[in-house]
Amino acid sequence: MGALEGIRVLDLTHAHAGPICTMYMAAMGAEVIKIEPPWGEMTRFFPPLINGVSPYFTFINRVKKGVTLNLKSLKGLEVFKKLVKISDVIVENFSPGTMEELGLGWETLKELNPRIIQASISGFGQTGPWANRRSFDPIAQAASGYMWLMKDSIDPDGPPLQAPEAIADTIPGFTALIGILSALINRSKTGKGQMIDVAQMDAMIAVFQSLSFWHLGKTTFSKALSSYGVGVSGCHKAIDGYIMFSLPPGRITEWFKQLLGIEELTWEKVAEWVGKRTVHEVDEILSKSGIPVSPVHDLDQVSTNEQARAREMFVKINHPVLGEITLPGFPIKFSETKGNLSIPAPSLGQHNYDVYKKLLGLTDRDIEELQGEGVI
Ligand SMILES: CC(C)(COP(=O)(O)OP(=O)(O)OC[C@H]1O[C@@H](n2cnc3c(N)ncnc32)[C@H](O)[C@@H]1OP(=O)(O)O)[C@@H](O)C(=O)NCCC(=O)NCCS
User: Fold this and answer.
1) For the chain, is the Cβ count within 10 Å smaller at the N or the C terminus?
2) What domain count does the chain have?
3) Does the C-beta of 294 come closer than 6 Å to ligand 1?
4) What is the pLDDT of residues 41-53, one digit of tens each?
């Protein structure tokens, strides 16, 4: 049993920030019903398509049920409202105002079901002068100061730099998840749902430790670290690759100096010591001495790494089109309940019958009619 067993989520999300939030809910046992327009959600078409299947969609929509529903049709709206009455959570990340335009604003939703919790993820929030702007991860990386921080720590005179993974989607998605779980706990005490408004920009600003360094000392975290005398902490070149280790002032640095037999720590001395050894040798020596260290892995190396494997961080999934595929596993290890990311993302409309018949009690004929009219 997952910790969220019994919680039903209507998932209107698209792209990344919303889907990652709802996938985690599904992994923890919630019944997540991903509702797509009959023409399919945008990441289904994200390249490269492998046998017509998008790696992006495959990654981020696992364990969900998938239905199609045209919310711009009256019948589609009717069906959605029926689902609202028997669900716990709605998650959406359309541009602000879209839910209202569909006739599904918060006032309507809470009237349909006072226990419902709605999470809206957007670029800049539902309020404020930038509320109407559309946004993707790079926009939030730029707006939040993250791209400036990247270049400032790597090459202050160079151009702004973008992180290669969609962190300005994932952090907001997880922020929304924290909000939803808290609202569920609150609801268990008050019986009332609530609306949660999470902005990508806000969620990024909220986690930058550099903003404290900046407002208190006009510096950043990475600059503060180097001025703190931890200059030799970093990435060194061994005979056959790169290795990263950290030497904060205190006992870890003392252990390291004893190991090398040196009084004074300099970048050159460390580089010379590492340069005569293989990655494996340095890794063995330093890890055994309690020094924080890891080889710099590429994606093949992390995928075969003994620790990642021991923690079941790569799961094999039987995909109906792609066959056996390997994807990242679930990182929260519960002692009593289960986390599971091993069920493939649904094909378009895969669970239409399951949801509309079993959950809403529609007949085969009703469903065929909705299909014929392009509602599902
Ligand atoms: C991601 C984003 C830029 C995409 O922009 P977009 O493709 O123009 O999508 P929007 O959210 O503005 O609009 C979605 C449209 O699809 C429609 N739609 C969505 N689901 C539907 C359904 N099941 N049935 C019918 N129509 C549907 C909406 O009604 C809306 O129609 P409209 O254009 O007539 O208003 C935008 O949604 C956004 O800024 N989202 C908030 C930030 C965010 O999460 N970004 C993604 C991070 S990965």
Assistant:
1) N
2) 2
3) no
4) 999 999 999 999 9
- Report residue 23 as tokens: 């996938």
- The encoded tokens of residue 52 equal 């017509």
**Is residue 87 domain-resident?**
yes
Cα distances (angstroms) measured from residue 376 to each of 8, 9, 40, 83, 135? 20, 19, 11, 14, 28
**172 CA: nearest ligand 1 atom:** 44
Mean pLDDT of 344-364: 97
CA of 95 to the centre of ligand 1 (A): 6
Please name the residue whose Cα sits nearest to atom 48 of ligand 1.
16
- Is the Cβ atom of 147 under 6 angstroms away from ligand 1? no
The structure's pTM equals 0.96
Rounded CA-CA distance 366/293 in Å is: 61
Ligand 1 near 375 CB (within 6 A)? no
Domain assignment present for residue 284? The answer is yes
Same domain, 146 and 264: no
Contact 32, 65 (CB under 8 A): yes
Shared-domain flag, residues 38 and 162? yes
Per the domain annotation, does 2 fall within a domain? no
Give the distance (Å) from ligand 1 centre to CA of residue 94.
4
Residue 4 Cα to ligand 1 middle (Å): 27
Average pLDDT over residues 118-129: 98
**Which one of 80, 98, 130 would you pick to mutate in the ligand 1 pocket, going by the greatest count of ligand atoms within 8 A of its CB?**
98
On the 0-12 / 13-18 / 19+ scale of CB atoms within 10 A, 37 is middle
